[in-house]
Amino acid sequence: MITAEWKPIEEMVGYLRGHKKVLVIGCATCVAECAAGGEREVETLAPLLAMAMQNDGNPVEVKSATLERQCEPEFVEAIAEAAAEADAIVSLACGIGMQLVAERFVDTPLYPGVNTTSLSLREEPGLWTSRCAACGDCVLGLTFGLCPVARCAKSLMNGPCGGTRTDGMCEINQDTPCIWRLIVERATARGRLEDLTQVRPPKNWSNSPAGGPKRMLREDLRS
Amino acid sequence: MANNSTAEFQPRITLLYCRQSLAPEVKPVQGSRTGQGFSVRLVLLPCSSKVQLPHLMRLLEQGSDGLQIAACPEKACQHLVGSTRAEKRLNRGRELLEQVGMGAERLGLERGAGLSLEDLMQMAGRRADAARALGPNPMKGV
Fold it and tell me: Is the CB of A57 inside 8 Å of chain B's CB atoms?
């Protein structure tokens, strides 16, 4: 899922100074799963913002809504009336959802209530860890289903790097396992360690986010 | 946040209490009561874990000066982890209240078993004392 984390409330207060009617909107999909922008978080943040603005000397009227999906135009229409009454919108959706709302209600300032952080897996309650970097050239077939792009601090294509701790954790973050250690262990368990010694062509990084904005076109799906 | 009206300030407390924390002979009560220098609204819950952050924040937005949760002792929760979950949510709520300048002490949790109505009123009174130190909820009357 796409994960996000609340911005500091102080930052949101800074955005909202001068506004009088604020609409806080959430999204019931990814950001709800990572407890950043679902209905529960929206209904927590809305009163908090009202209190924060009151204490800041800039009282605002805060309304709230949670969309089924903030990244689909059909669902965004559900807040058209509320958005028309607001003079600012705070969105707890990922950056995709935020931008769609900003495009749809172009005259109303939209402010982010979250930072979109990663494509992660919920490992256990309250813990999400990166699994994908949307690099555009998936290597999972070569790395035994473990992603070195998202899960190695250096995104190494050949590892381990030599900085692995003695307990098998990453030298950069002691809470993160060295993914190349896990790749080697899985390859060994399958009796295919030799696969990792094969020389491979360079990874195509031009299809990664560093290659600029993506445009995916499927003629068979277009009307 | 305390102001000049603190001396006359009679905090309005909302006390959310777990049904299981009462003594067996105590009949659950709901509604408003008046204590020594404060008023309290008693809200009965099937388990303290039913408390969610939106409930707490809305109550404060609507003008409660303080919220007290009465939960069972940690190892006596009928739902095993209910009161632990309530406490974790409450701690998160306290952090958020501090961030918005409301004061963490507006929110509290006490544990107890075999509680009487008088025990609940005393818990509310302790939260009233904490709220009194912070002054009236700035959202009151907004």
Answer: no
CATH number at residue A46: 3.40.50.2300
Judged against a pLDDT cut of 70, whether residue B4 lies above it is answered with no
Write down the residue that tokens 């792009």 correspond to.
Answer: A149
- Among residues A92, A118, A144, which one ends one of the domains? A118
Considering only the beta carbons, identify the residue of A9, A54, A59 that sits closest to B99.
A9
Domain span including residue A145: 135-201
Interatomic CA distance for residues A142 and A145, integer angstroms: 8
Are A122 and A33 in contact by the 8 Å Cβ rule? The answer is yes
Tell me which H or E stretch contains B22.
Answer: none
Q: How many domains does chain A have?
A: 2
Residue spans of chain A under pLDDT 50: none
Nearest to A164 by CA among A184, A144, A143: A184
To the nearest whole Å, the CA of A197 is away from the closest chain B CA by: 48
Name every residue in B having a CB less than 8 A away from some CB of A.
52-54, 57-58, 60-61, 96-97, 99-102, 138-139, 142
pLDDT-based confidence at B6, cuts 50/70/90? low
How many beta-carbon pairs under 8 angstroms link A with B?
50
Cα A146 to Cα A157: distance, rounded to the nearest angstrom: 12
Mutate to test the interface with A, among B100, B102, B139, B140 (most CBs of A within 10 A): B100
Contacts of B96 in chain A (CB under 8 A): 9, 44, 48
Per-residue pLDDT reduced to its tens digit, A74-88: 999 999 999 999 999
Residue A104, number of CB atoms within 10 A of its CB: 15
A60 vs chain B: nearest CA distance in angstroms?
A: 10
Cβ contact (<8 Å) for A8 and B57? no
Which one is the CATH code of B10-134: 3.30.70, 2.60.40, 2.60.450, 3.40.50?
3.40.50
Over residues B94-135, the pLDDT tens digits come to 999 999 999 999 999 999 999 999 999 999 999 999 999 999
Closest-CA residue of B relative to A42 is B54
Q: What is the pLDDT of residues B15-46, one digit of tens each?
A: 999 999 999 999 999 999 999 999 999 999 99
Look at residue A42 and tell me if it is in a domain: yes
- A207 C-beta neighbours (distance < 10 Å), count: 14
